[in-house]
Amino acid sequence: MKTLTRVLPGDAIIRLQCLIILAVALLFAGLLGSRFFSIGNFQSIASQLPVLGMLALGMGLTMLTGGINLSIIAGANACSLVMAAVIVSHPGEPLFLVLALLAGLLVAVAIGVVNGALIAWVGVSPILATLGTMTLITGLNILLSNGTVISGFPPAIQFLGNASVFGIPVALLLFLAVAVGLWVLLEHTTLGRSLYLVGSNEQATRFSGVNTARVQISVYVLSALLGWAAALLMMAKFNSAKAGYGESYLLVTILASVLGGINPDGGFGRILGLVLALIVLQMLESGLNLLGVSSYLTMALWGGVLILFIALQNRKA
């Protein structure tokens, strides 16, 4: 019994999500049968989850501190456009591929530092700070790329989006590796503990001797770096980069974070919960697509679920 209790999640939200996954699987098993439980459908879910997952992890990190990162999609597109421009300027040259990756990293770090500095040093609220940087970056992305698609990447990039190991997409394995790394960061490092403390009570944390400004800047830099990872996976998946890619993901990243048990006010949440929420959302989206439900109706459903879940949380509080 002791071994079983260690294996099974003890958190109520985790248990609820496991039940939801089972309920969704049974529902679509009855409605779709083998169409839902086909290898092709599960491979489709596995290929779509990593990009959204990286972005949701980046969003969830900032929400743990009581903040939000509305610029994560725009930042990811900025990274992909910079990397794509460097790559296609000298196609087939490994040195410029490395330079492209470094350039994308620098862009991500710069965006994270700007967001963190506005919030930690200037005192701008996270929603306004990241809304401003989102608007600025989106405009620059369109201006510098003229709204066009940059395509034609080397096999090393395409490998991330198309290759698999024992039938499991490489992109999914990378996402899981990053998720485990973040779990270690949050559960077993000083930065992780400080991050939760800032989300619980920033002023008390500052008075206890924690450099809260450094923590917040670090969190937004990490969030932007996860956006860079998502940009790399988007480039690999689509073999192209564009200013408007992934715009519909913003709502879903917030929804996944909230459904994953992350408190929008900060201070509480787990990586495992967020990953399970992503699985639920991807299963629902896949099942609804197979049923022929409009993607616009699905998006409206996500918005309604988000409003309902936050309302229920506030009512319980």
List the SSEs and their pairings:
Layout: H1 2-7, H2 12-32, H3 39-64, H4 72-89, H5 94-122, H6 126-145, E1 150-151, H7 155-162, E2 164-165, E3 168-169, H8 170-188, H9 190-200, H10 202-207, H11 212-238, E4 240-241, H12 249-259, H13 271-290, H14 295-316
Antiparallel strand pairs: 1-4, 2-3
Helix pairs in contact: 2-13, 3-8, 3-11, 3-12, 3-13, 4-5, 4-6, 4-11, 5-6, 5-11, 7-11, 8-9, 9-11, 12-13, 12-14
Give the uncertain stretches in residue-range form: 1-10
Envelope shape: globular
- At CATH level 3, the topology is ABC transporter involved in vitamin B12 uptake, BtuC
The largest pleated sheet is described as: 2 strands, antiparallel
Number of helices: 14
Could you say what the CATH architecture is?
Orthogonal Bundle
Instruction: Please report the distance between the alpha carbons of the first and last residues.
Output: 33 Å
Along the chain, the helix and strand elements come as HHHHHHEHEEHHHHEHHH
CATH class descriptor: Mainly Alpha
Give the neighbour order of strands across the main sheet: 1-4
Number of domains: 1
How much is the average pLDDT? 88
Name the beta content range: under 5%
Q: Find the count of extended strands (DSSP E, 2+ residues).
A: 4
Give the helix proportion (percent range). over 70%
